[in-house]
Fold this protein.
Amino acid sequence: MKKKSRADFIIVTGLSGSGKTVVSRYLEDMGYYCVDNLPAKLIPEMVSLWQRRKVEIDKIALVIDIREPNFLNEFPSVLEHLKIKPLILFLEASDETLVKRFSESRRPHPLALKKSILEGVKLERKKLARIKAMADEVIDTTGLNLSQLKEQVNKQVLKQSRQLQINVISFGYKYGLPLDSDLVFDTRFLPNPYYVDELREQNGRSKKVRDFVLNSEMTRKFLAQLIQFVEFLIPGVMQEGKSTLTISIGCTGGKHRSVVLAESLG
């Protein structure tokens, strides 16, 4: 059984409005099982089930904050008695940024039900000073967009470079576009094996069909331009924060040309 490490167990906490939900969703995309607003007293039970493989979960991330009434009193004690110590990520932002975010979202601050938003922000910052001091990593989300915040989590918490999953699929226009396409390329202008009797019943994975399509000068030029374009695009897609990129290549029936080009690009 693989021994659990701190990188497999993350607790996300911090100021309300600092981006904990965004980080939780990103960690979920990165393979973590995320639980939001888990009461601190339930952490040991959750960790015990996870360690004993009573749940099919490899990595967990818990979002715990001041929304829980007993958070400030129970969390430090619970943390002290855990057998495996989590990596604690604390998120914060400037008062001005937090006030603006709450004003734009029209959601009440948990500590400002009878106060101004700014008073709630300042009170929470004061109350969470002890929790912040316990954190392994602190990220100030002031001025960070979604992509930049994810990049900071990668660098400071996951200690890895951003990964992008690329799916290349072929399809037939007669059946409609794939719904999850990010990029769509049309190969219907290329030589069509369908009109060659001995190739009609074969598909784009057969050597004869592949040779027929790729022996065309037009196909070779198109494939070279396609590869160059995708290689140019990938860094920008990663910078924008996407975790997956689906490239769809189509021909009339989705059997010959699109398969050859999809296999070649892949």
About this structure: The chain has a mean pLDDT of 91. Residues 165-265 form one domain. The beta strands are 9-14, 32-36, 59-63, 87-92, 137-140, 165-172, 183-186, 244-251.
